[in-house]
Specification:
Number of domains: 2
Distance between the termini: 33 Å
Oligomer: single chain
Strand order of the largest sheet: 3-2-1-4-6-5
Low-confidence stretches: 281-299
Number of strands: 8
Radius of gyration: 22 Å
Strand content: 5-15%
Order of helices and strands: HEHEHEHHEHEEHHHHEE
CATH architecture of the largest domain: 3-Layer(aba) Sandwich
Length: 299
């Protein structure tokens, strides 16, 4: 799979030559490609806006997509984009210099959403909802201006799990960030190619590549965030039972509506009783419902 360093795209040329890192890089590329295929993200000839925050996840996303493109496995046009939201102290030159040095086509957009967030959000409330909404609106605008059909984000498996539990604990619903989504206007896809990849792998990859990671001081500066509480809970579960996160993520891919309680999702009224062997009564759906036994083995 791997070529001589001088033949690689610039963003991959300083990769460590250890066996451990080669396995990590191969796993990231393989799982990224799997997500692209599993959720039918790729339309040959499309143009994608790859959103780059300067965090470890977005660097990993960009590197994986560029490698797949370089290997002829991702026939789309990539445009990296950073939205500078006007946070005080944000190192505005880091990403433009990095992307220029790596020969990555890019657009840097300045839009002071920071001042709006600080003005509109009452003291003691979290910034995330308004900040992300303003950011997403600007990214949609940029994608349209650049002729892109998709906005590509660096959310990974752990982000998806955390969002699921936040929705369940605080929103009273079973929902998360899907790997592929159509925006409300119906003209842009939102894609998350890192959906199968752990946060730990993103962190190891970006740090090993020595990418210039920029922390988010706006959200990260707040204490008591619900997402951080959920993250701590999942971390504790993972410490107690290694591999728990991956099992939970598989559950999101193996949903059984008949075993939940949403009458809008499953037609419970259509269930009928029929006489079984020996006169027993067996529950069955009008249209091919599979085993309803609560003790049945999950798929």
């Amino acid at each position: 799979m791997f070529d001589e360093p001088e033949t690689l795209p610039p963003i991959l040329r300083d990769a460590p030559e250890t066996t451990e890192f080669r396995k990590l890089r191969k796993r990231i590329v393989r799982e990224t490609r799997a997500a692209l295929d599993d959720y039918t993200m790729v339309r040959p000839g499309a143009r994608w806006l790859v959103c780059l925050s300067g965090g470890k996840d977005s660097y990993t996303l960009l590197a994986a997509l560029i490698e797949l493109q370089w290997r002829g496995l991702l026939p789309v046009d990539l445009l990296a984009c950073n939205l500078d939201q006007g946070q005080p102290g944000f190192p505005a030159t880091v990403l433009p210099e990095f992307l220029t040095r790596m020969q990555v086509p890019h657009r840097i957009e300045y839009k002071d959403t920071y001042s709006i967030v600080m003005d509109k959000v009452p003291q003691g409330r979290t910034y995330c909802a308004l900040c992300s909404r303003l950011r997403r609106g600007n990214l949609y605008r940029i994608a349209r201006e650049e002729g892109c059909e998709a906005v590509v984000l660096g959310h990974h498996r752990d982000d998806i799990l955390e969002t699921f539990f936040m929705n369940m604990f605080h929103g009273g619903r079973l929902a998360t960030m899907p790997p592929k989504l159509l925006n409300e206007d119906g003209d842009l896809f939102v894609l998350r190619p890192l959906a199968h990849i752990s946060e730990a792998d993103c962190d190891r990859f970006a740090r090993a590549m020595n990418y210039p990671i920029i922390p988010c001081d706006l959200c990260g500066s707040q204490e008591g965030l619900q997402r951080m509480q959920v993250k701590a809970l999942l971390d504790d579960w993972e410490r107690r039972t290694p591999g728990r996160r991956q099992v939970m993520y598989r559950a999101l891919q193996n949903v059984r509506p008949s075993h939940l309680a949403d009458p809008a999702l499953f037609d419970f009224a259509a269930l009928t009783r029929v006489a079984g062997v020996g006169g027993d009564i067996a529950a069955t759906a009008a249209e091919g419902l599979d085993n309803l036994n609560d003790n049945s083995t999950p798929r």
